[in-house]
Amino acid sequence: MQVGKLTQDRLGSKQLVITRVFNAPRDLVVQAHTQPAYVRRWLLGPPGWEMPTCEMDLRVGGRYRWEWSNAERKMTMGLGGEYLELDLPRFMRVTQRFDDAWDGQQSEIFTEFLEQGAQTILKMTITYESEAILEKVMTTPMANGMEMGYERLESLLKQMEGEAA
Length: 165
Description:
The chain is of the alpha+beta class. The chain has helices spanning about 25-35, 35-40, 130-140, 140-165; strands spanning about 5-10, 15-20, 50-55, 65-70, 75-85, 90-100, 105-115, 120-125. It has an 8-stranded antiparallel β-sheet with strand order 1-2-8-7-6-5-4-3, with helices on one face. Strand 5 (about 75-85) and strand 6 form a beta hairpin. Helix 1 (about 25-35) crosses helix 2. The longest helix has 23 residues, at about 140-165. The mean pLDDT is about 90.
């Protein structure tokens, strides 16, 4: 599997699997996904967005809340959910609900962090409420926005590796 651009595969009628390889050790990739100071630096999507709210109570039953804003476009967006299962650095399972419910009421995300030598494979399985919602999601530019964030994450991971050395 090549490092870089994510892949998006449909799994059954209600699931989408996003896979991305990072050229960094698993512990750093997990830190970047679980510590607000790192998350707000890369999970931004297209240029122009910032994340003024990044709250993460990383424990089973804990909640997270992320809010983005784009001053130029005068737009805001938010989502949140609950940590259902944590076995870090191996995996985490969460619920997710967007404020505007564009993708249905709630989805569930199972994120695995798989070691592959000095690289980490991120495998995210998203389960939607229905096939119709999955179809709707697949017509959006979500994967492009995610890849922009992951490219930003690759740069952050290099900085984190330099700080750890």
